[in-house]
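Researcher: I'm preparing a figure for a lab meeting and need a structural model of a single chain. I don't have an experimental structure, so a prediction will have to do for now. The sequence is pasted below. Please return the structure as tokens so I can convert it later.
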Amino acid sequence: MIEEIWVDPAVSALRPDFAVLVMGVYGLRNGATDDRSRSRLAEAAEKAVAVDDPKVEAWRDAYRAFGAKPQRTRPSVDALVRRMPLPEINLVVDAYNAISVRHGLPIGGEDLGHYEGTARLIRASGDESFEVVEKGEPAIDHPEIGEVVWRDDRGATCRRWNWRQCVRTRITEETTDALFLLERLAPMSMEELDAAGKELVKMLEEITPEVRVESRLVGHG
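Model: Understood. Here is the structure written out token by token.
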């Protein structure tokens, strides 16, 4: 599945330095946040990058490049480093959130059981469906024309690059197969991106020792 993931040249034109480490993870046994996960979140909060870290600012610049206002809809890592203590979601989401704030790296997690077709990062046409919940009821939203979105065959899965995920593909305690998207911009080095990926694999193996992982770098040449 990960061999088919692609980035639209129109996105690469915005930020030629963009690269994403994609990871397919199979056979997870997720669960509710436990004491080890809480300890991991607390440690990550203490070692989190600052709000004004250049790696975080790079994402604000990327948002401005496609017309978004990052002070209103923040890049995911920008929102996380402002949200302390870190939220307790579930074992898997806690793991990648901890890595995200320590490295200043947006990380998305998708439930492959609810994914349809190939993941791709595009400039939106504006007619893509985006599944949300409004006032407790399922609803359909749409990205703006030209907005950078992740999508599958059914619709947009994450709006404004990494701002907001659709409800359909969120990782839950029932998730067994997942797609992780570790998104890099300069000045983060490719070596740090690789190290963050290895840290995520280690954490996921602690959650599920027999988990199977495949990975691939997309973009940045």
